[in-house]
Amino acid sequence: MKFFLISDNIDTQMGLRLAGIEGVVVHERHEVLEALEQAMHMEDVAVILITTKLVETCPDVISELKLQVKKPLIEEIPDRHGSAKIGETIDGYVSEAIGVKL
């Protein structure tokens, strides 16, 4: 099973390509939705990674897919456009998951 990246910049794509993760670079909402549709129909893709900036272009669609589709897993990843407070974001995720404020 593979990962697949949908990114808004070449830097993220190149970095993950070095780790063996293929992907595409898109910028517009319709491109994001088209790339997402194609990736979801790839039999060998288990996880789709999408940069934060692209998730913000169509949050309703991505949230709905996360709730309804079991495979592939759709996961948002931060990139250079994301929040500089990634530590606080991670603390929030952990606190929400375990129910204890860190």
TrEMBL record:
<dbReference type="InterPro" id="IPR036906">
    <property type="entry name" value="ATPase_V1_fsu_sf"/>
</dbReference>
<keyword id="KW-0813">Transport</keyword>
<dbReference type="Pfam" id="PF01990">
    <property type="entry name" value="ATP-synt_F"/>
</dbReference>
<comment type="similarity">
    <text>Belongs to the V-ATPase F subunit family.</text>
</comment>
<keyword id="KW-0406">Ion transport</keyword>
<dbReference type="InterPro" id="IPR008218">
    <property type="entry name" value="ATPase_V1-cplx_f_g_su"/>
</dbReference>
<protein>
    <submittedName>
        <fullName>V-type ATP synthase subunit F</fullName>
    </submittedName>
</protein>
